Amino acid sequence: MENKYLTVAALTKYIKRKIDVDPHLKDVLLKGEISNFSHHSRGHMYMTIKDDQAKIQAVMFAGNNRYLKFKPENGMNVLIRGEISVYEAFGQYQLYIQQMEPDGIGSLYLAFEQLKEKLHKQGYFDQGHKKEIPLFPEHIGVITSPTGAAVRDIITTIKRRYPIVQVTIIPVLVQGESAARSIADAVDLANNLDLFDTLIVGRGGGSIEELWAFNEEIVAESIFRSKIPIISAVGHETDITISDYVADLRAPTPTGAAELAVQSQIELREKIDTLTRSLTRELTNEMRNHQRHLERLKGAYAFRYPEQLIKQKEQALDSFVLSLQKEMIATKKEKETRLLNLYKRLITQHPQKQLEQSKIKLDEKIKSQNYYMTKLLENKSIQLTNTIDKLFLVNPLEIMKRGFSLSYTAGNEIIKSTNQVKANDYIKIKLSDGKINCQVVEVEEESKS
Description:
This protein is α/β, with parallel strands linked by helices and 449 residues long. Among the domains are: 8-103, CATH 2.40.50.140; 129-263, Rossmann fold (3-Layer(aba) Sandwich), CATH 3.40.50; 400-440, no CATH class. It is 47% helix and 20% strand. A five-stranded mixed beta barrel has the order 1-2-3-5-4. Helix 7 (242-246) links the parallel strand 9 (230-234) and strand 10 (249-250). Helix 4 runs parallel beside helix 8. Keywords: Cytoplasm, Exonuclease, Hydrolase, Nuclease. Residues 124-439 form the Exonuclease VII large subunit C-terminal domain.
């Protein structure tokens, strides 16, 4: 019996029909993490939905994803409704997504954000730590997989643009559990060798899992402590890793890193040619200017008639010398006159002279003061004598010497009226030379007219 062989297409169509008629696969509710996400220019979204043990290819056509209220990203956990079918061209079953919504944040994405925030706070991304990439490097170290397309792109680009630079590949693992340690050790090794003036660290494109080594903290630390400037070139332009943030310069691709590391020899030659032309033009103009200046000097009077010029200068010199002598004599005379005036002022204002004049003024003031004091004393003496004379005239004792007396009661009150005494009272009569104690015999009052 002859065996009947199926074609791949027939087998695939058979399996597809089996799956398409299964009612359990027509409406599938699935949750998982997005990986390898890409948004096609025609609007369709392609991705891998995975969990810890399995993954499935998925597509969400533009007609279904145009109403999404969020932008799917790698590492994002999502809840999905769709159906399972077979994509015959690849012979693989896949999920056709009809609805999708976020379900928290994927573990890798969360780890990325957490490490990014931590290193940012520690200053790993600060511009102040960025080192300048040399304009004309002599030896570039390329830390990447020796078998990937990235290393070929880097070497090809560097040799095409700047063939005189030396390039050394430092092979490392770029994915897998040991990749991060391998990359970090390579960066440290390059610094210890002290051979390179520029390092390129990177790899080609891949899923977030495949690029994850460049999001590890040990890689970030080795790049940060590197004394050699580092250009990070991981994946494609949309793939941004922690290494990109820490590196001194980020390139969108490995080829872009090579272009940033070296300048194009063609462009350099064009710059040199441009500078050469500019310099030649400037020198030519400068020489022409000097030539014209020289021609003017050659036609000058001094070069045509030097003897006459010397005679004129000799005559001018004599005139200057004569003028100078006159000026010196006038200056000397002016100085002497000024000195003589100063001497006269000094003699006039000499301290001894000032002292003598002051002494004369002082003597005159003393004489004047003595005269006025004497006159004042004489006037005061006259006034005092007049005052004493007036006081003498009104002195009671002097009046009493002329025969007057004062009478006092026994209580020493002056008797001014007969009413103050009565018969037999004792009274005292004070005279200018003593007093008399008396007794009243009789009191007579004079009649008032």
